[in-house]
Amino acid sequence: ESYDMGGHDTYMHKEISEQADAVDRVLRGRIDDRFSTVHLGGLNLDAREARGVRRIKILGCGTSYHAGQIGAQLIEELARIPADAEPASEFRYRNPVVDPDTLYVAVSQSGETYDVLAAVQELKRKGARVLGVVNVVGSAIAREADGGTYVHAGPEVCVVSTKCFTNTVVAFALLALHLGRIRDLSVADGKRIIDGLRRLPEQISEILAGEDEIKRLAAEYADAKSMMFIGRVRGYPVAREASLKLKEVSYIHAEAYPASELKHGPLALIEPAMPTVAIVPDDELLEKNRAAMEEIKARSGRILAVAHQVQEKADHTIVVPKNENELDPILMGIPLQLFAYHTALAMGRDIDKPRNLAKSVTVE
Ligand code: AGP
């Protein structure tokens, strides 16, 4: 990919549109069908060391932090290693306990974000092993880490990250599968995940082909002063990232909450002027998510659902193709990138360079 716009009006639109190819690239040459696993050459972590990992702590900022949250869930689900993600900026200021059996993973598109780099340097000073999940080859974080994997999203110019988010989550799925197959993930489950990963590029193209309908929906909700984004477990980081995307590019205020937390406070905000975007995967929490939508409808809230089937409780549904439960979050965020883009376009925003933001925050 070059830096030219390739016929698109903005880099954001170009980068959203490139995602099927970008995902194909992060998968290429890494799948090993013989052992139902993947090879990640740069990890510098042999099987014995991987088996010794007791915890994984993922550090990143903004969109990369959200990708890390999905990554932590994938690692827990596929590799059964306790994992969580934390903003690097917070981690490095709270004098964290650095545990020798914890593997630290720094996530960054640019590889230059100061808060992430400083966290990596502090961890290394304390003797921790740090991997990088980074897009820009040869960047400071990639150089500082003990090993890692590149996410191969290609150059991302728009300040607002889209294709790199998706590729980073896929890279985490590869890492989780790799660790899982060294530990207790069966051959059959390894194959199931590989088959799911291989379906992603085509399913992404299917989602992107629905752009006209998403544009129409964006026009319908563009009058909102504020929007609520909800999801549960796998859907929650998707909701957080979609809410950040909308805020960054359209300047519409947005809140993201676990759907389960609505009744503990944010339900007070629900009224017709505060629409909700609900992430509703067809998984073990489907009925719980439907119940949350019912609560919102009972308060006259408008609902736009992103789901695998039309949701009766919602006013509108964007239907996305179903993959394996663990991989569904990769696809469910993509229509909401287009939703944020078309909302911002309708509002005449400076899409590639939103006010007050920089592509890479290299200062504290
Ligand atoms: C992305 O939409 C944002 N501009 C921002 O949150 C970004 O993800 C964050 O600053 C981290 O950047 P990095 O991935 O380059 O480290």
UniProtKB/TrEMBL annotation:
Residue ranges occupied by any SIS domain in the UniProt entry: 45-185, 217-354
Chief site of localization: cytoplasm
Reaction(s) this enzyme catalyzes, per UniProt: D-fructose 6-phosphate + L-glutamine = D-glucosamine 6-phosphate + L-glutamate
Keywords: Aminotransferase, Cytoplasm, Glutamine amidotransferase, Repeat, Transferase
The keyword Cytoplasm appears for this protein: yes
Keyword Ligase: no
EC number: 2.6.1.16
Quaternary state and interactors: Homodimer.
Designated name of the protein: Glutamine--fructose-6-phosphate aminotransferase [isomerizing]
Gene that this polypeptide is encoded by: glmS
